[in-house]
Design goal:
By secondary structure, this protein is mainly α. It has one domain. It has a two-stranded antiparallel ribbon with strand order 1-2. The longest helix is centred in the first third of the chain and has 21 residues. It starts with 6 loop residues before the first helix and ends in a 28-residue tail after the last helix.
């Protein structure tokens, strides 16, 4: 039986999400309020970034994050490149992963899980191979096996490989391990940005999954 079809994968994982996400939202509520106020001053309204992403079984939901870029546009009316619109405050949010905290609400709602493949853009759906598309067999995660193996520095092929490996090996022990590793990586600021840009390069569909190992 694949990990996501185990008793923990079907029932226990959701219980863990509810307990930890609700606790985190309560404990971190003062910090969330401070970040909201600073974002309002530093970037402006809206403070939150919302974007439609595909979740489990390709069901669409609104991902919520703190905004890290402003809405500056060129003379043609088009948004300026990410590197131009990224603010100093936005870089701080991303370097500390604080921009991701509102996704705890997505976890509590059941749109996401604490651990799972990261939710990607809707337009990527038609670019996946059948194997890569398996990443949508589970809820997307706030963090995941790929995020603790290179994060944004990893290639698309490696990220998809780690996502599929995780789906086949879901367990309580693995989830707790990933959460603990994520905390350490965030503190150490490991793999925050890709080498090419302020944001992750777009997936164009060429990547093919590699073989992932548990301790690679």
């Amino acid at each position: 039986m694949a990990g996501h079809q185990s008793i923990y994968g079907r029932f226990g994982k959701r219980c863990l999400d509810i307990v930890l996400a609700s606790t985190a939202l309560i404990v971190l509520s003062p910090l969330l309020l401070v970040l909201w106020l600073i974002g309002h001053v530093a970037i402006g309204r809206p403070v939150l970034f919302r974007q439609t992403r595909p979740g489990r079984d390709d069901v669409l939901f609104d991902l919520i994050k703190f905004r890290s870029m402003n809405n500056r546009r060129g003379q043609d009316g088009e948004l300026l490149p990410d590197r131009v619109r990224m603010t100093a405050y936005g870089r701080f949010l991303r370097a500390t992963s604080l921009d991701e905290l509102p996704e705890l609400w997505n976890v509590l709602r059941g749109d996401m899980s604490l651990v799972g493949p990261r939710p990607l853009l809707e337009r990527y759906l038609s670019r996946y191979t059948p194997e890569q598309r398996r990443r949508h067999q589970v809820l997307p995660g706030l963090t995941g096996w790929a995020q603790v193996h290179g994060r944004n520095m990893a290639s698309w092929a490696d990220r998809f490989s780690y996502d599929i490996w995780y789906i086949d090996h879901v367990s309580l022990g693995l989830d707790l391990r990933i959460i603990a590793m994520t905390i350490v990586y965030v503190i150490r600021r490991v793999g925050i940005h890709s080498a090419e840009s302020e944001t992750v390069p777009e997936f164009m569909g060429e990547a093919q999954p590699h073989s992932a190992k548990a301790d690679s």
